[in-house]
Amino acid sequence: QVQLVESGGGSVRPGGSLRLSCEASDRTFGNYDMAWFRQAPGQGRETVAHIRANGEGAVYADSVKGRFTISRDNAKSTLYLQMNNLKPEGTAVYYCNAPFARFGTQTIWTWGQGTQVSVSS
Description:
mainly beta
């Protein structure tokens, strides 16, 4: 089973930036489309961004479009999420995983612990 370790979260003020990383334990990472998800307190998990296995075709939720950028380094088995102009509604635990379908919520691997992002003034 592939292990996923998310990092890079923290507390920032509105308008701030963070860069999240997700390292996978297996080199098969490069064979899979990947996505970032987030779960805010009391809410369900939502897909934030999706990227194809070859690093192309990024798709974003409307709520983050133009502010977040998903990327990957298959040689390092690592997924990234650059988050700019963060808003308070971006407060959530952020996770990565390989979705079964493009921008879907069903996932292939066991969830990691996630990384907490808190945006407040």
